[in-house]
Automatic annotation (TrEMBL):
Organism domain of life: Eukaryota
Location of region: Disordered: 391-411
Keyword Transmembrane helix: yes
The species this protein was found in: Camelus dromedarius (Dromedary)
Name the UniProt record assigns to this protein: P2X purinoceptor
Disulfide bonds: 116-165, 126-149, 132-159, 218-228, 262-271
C-alpha cells in the first residue's frame, strides 16, 4: 500500500523537463543524420512524389452502358440450322454494368403443363407406387410428385410429376465444336461516363479524338489501339489467360476493368482509361463443383396453340457474363493536405532523437555515464528539503550555475 501511495505521489508531484546534453560521438552523430535522411527520403520520395501527398483526391463515379453486335449460326438435331442475332443471345437486353452472352444451351421445346415421368436418377427411379411420395417437391425436382410410378422408357420406371412436360434433361452439357468461334467474334461496346465533381471533370471513355468512322471500324488491342472501347469477346477471354472455346461450354464470369488514374495538375487530355481483363468465377480442377454460369430462360416466352393449350420452349442458357468494373482516382493540388503532410514529416524527424536516446542510454558501453549526465533529480528548492545544493559543500556560485536554464553538458 505504501508503494502505491509513493508511486501516486511521484506521479502527482513530480515534473519532467527536457535537458539538453551535447554528446560528441561519431557513431551517434552519423546514426542521427542517417535516420533523419531516411525520414526525409520517405516524406519527399514516397509521400510527396509517389503518393502525391500535396493533392486532394477523389474516387471515380461512373455509369456504364453496353451494346453487343454480331450474328452467329448453329446447326443442331433439335433446332436444325438457325441464325442467332443479338436479340436471341443477349439475355436480358440490358443489365446494370453487365452483359450476358449465351454461348451454349439445352433446349426443351413445346412444353405443356401436364403429367409426365421424371428424369431417372437415384431419387426418382422406382419400382412401385410405394416408392413415390405424393405431394413431394424437392429442390431438384421438376414438379410435384403424384405418387405414381410410371414408365420412363421400356426398361426404367420413375416417379410421375405434375410439371411442364416433357421435363428438362440437363444431365449432359452439350459439347461445342466450332460453334463458339462465331460468338468469339462478337463485339461489345462499353461506353463509360464519369461524372463531374470537385476533382473529376465530366468525361467518357470515347475520347474526343475518336471519330464516328473510327469507332465503327476499330477493335481494342492493347498494343495497336488501347483506347478503342469496342472489344472482341474471344480476345477478352484470351487476354485473361483462358480459352474462349472451353469457357463457352459451361459459361463463366469475366471482368472488364476500366481504371482511371488522373493527375489533374496536368492537362485533362492526359486523363485516359486503362483496360484489363480477368476471370472472376472459380476455375479449380480439384474443386470444380457447380462450374460455369447458367440459368433458365423461356424462349419466346409463352404462347397458345389453336386449341388454347399453353406452350413454352425452355432454354437452359450457358454463357459468359461480362462485368464492367470502373475504378480509379483523380488528384489536384490543395494547400490543406500539403500542410498536413509537411507537419507530419517534421514530427517524424523526432523519431531520430528517440532512437538515438535509446541506443545511447541503453545499448552503448558508457550508457550509465550518459544516463548520469542526461537525468538530474532536483528537490523542491522553496521548501528547503534535503538538497545537496543547500549543503555547505557547494558554493553559492555552483548553486546558481546548476539552477541556470542555460547550462549544457558536453560529453
Amino acid at each position: 500500500m505504501a508503494g502505491c501511495c509513493a508511486a501516486l505521489a511521484a506521479f502527482l508531484f513530480e515534473y519532467d523537463t527536457p535537458r539538453i546534453v551535447l554528446i560528441r560521438s561519431r557513431k551517434v552523430g552519423l546514426m542521427n543524420r542517417a535516420v533523419q535522411l531516411l525520414i526525409l527520403a520517405y516524406v519527399i520520395g514516397w509521400v510527396f512524389v509517389w503518393e502525391k501527398g500535396y493533392q486532394e483526391t477523389d474516387s471515380v463515379v461512373s455509369s456504364v452502358t453496353t451494346k453487343a453486335k454480331g450474328v452467329t449460326v448453329t446447326n443442331t438435331s433439335k433446332l436444325g440450322f438457325r441464325i442467332w442475332d443479338v436479340a436471341d443471345y443477349v439475355i436480358p437486353p440490358q443489365e446494370e454494368n453487365s452483359l450476358f452472352i449465351m454461348t451454349n444451351m439445352i433446349f426443351t421445346v413445346n412444353q405443356t403443363q401436364g403429367l409426365c415421368p421424371e428424369i431417372p436418377d437415384k431419387k426418382t427411379v422406382c419400382k412401385s407406387d410405394a416408392d413415390c411420395a405424393a405431394g413431394s417437391a424437392g429442390t431438384q425436382s421438376s414438379g410435384v410428385a403424384t405418387g405414381r410410378c410410371v414408365l420412363f422408357n421400356e426398361t426404367v420406371k420413375t416417379c410421375e410429376v405434375a410439371a411442364w412436360c416433357p421435363v428438362e434433361d440437363d444431365a449432359q452439357v452439350p459439347k461445342l465444336q466450332k460453334t463458339s468461334l462465331f460468338w468469339s467474334r462478337t463485339t461489345s461496346g462499353t461506353p463509360n461516363l464519369t461524372s463531374a465533381s470537385k476533382c473529376w471533370p465530366a468525361g467518357r471513355n470515347i475520347l474526343p479524338n475518336i471519330t464516328t468512322a473510327h469507332l465503327k471500324s476499330c477493335i481494342y488491342d492493347a498494343a495497336t489501339d488501347p483506347f478503342c472501347p469496342i472489344f472482341r469477346l474471344g480476345k477478352i477471354v484470351e487476354d485473361a489467360g483462358h480459352s474462349f472455346q472451353d469457357m463457352a461450354v459451361e459459361g463463366g464470369i469475366m471482368g472488364i476493368q476500366i481504371k482511371w488514374d488522373c493527375n489533374l495538375d496536368r492537362a485533362a487530355s492526359l486523363c485516359l482509361p486503362k483496360y484489363s481483363f480477368r476471370r472472376l468465377d472459380t476455375r479449380d480442377v480439384d474443386h470444380n463443383v457447380s462450374p460455369g454460369y447458367n440459368f433458365r430462360w423461356p424462349f419466346a416466352k409463352y404462347y397458345h396453340d389453336p386449341t388454347g393449350t399453353e406452350h413454352r420452349t425452355l432454354i437452359k442458357a450457358y454463357g459468359i457474363r461480362f462485368d464492367i468494373i470502373v475504378f480509379g482516382k483523380a488528384g489536384k493540388f490543395d494547400i490543406i493536405p500539403t500542410m498536413i503532410n509537411i507537419g507530419s514529416g517534421l514530427a517524424l524527424l523526432g523519431v531520430a532523437t528517440v532512437l538515438c536516446d535509446v541506443i545511447v542510454l541503453y545499448c552503448m558501453k558508457k550508457r550509465y555515464y550518459y544516463r548520469e549526465k542526461k537525468y538530474k533529480y532536483v528537490e523542491d528548492y522553496e521548501q528547503h528539503l534535503d538538497s545537496p545544493w543547500l549543503s555547505s559543500e557547494h558554493s553559492e556560485e555552483e548553486e546558481k550555475a546548476a539552477m541556470s536554464p542555460q547550462r549544457k553538458f558536453q560529453i
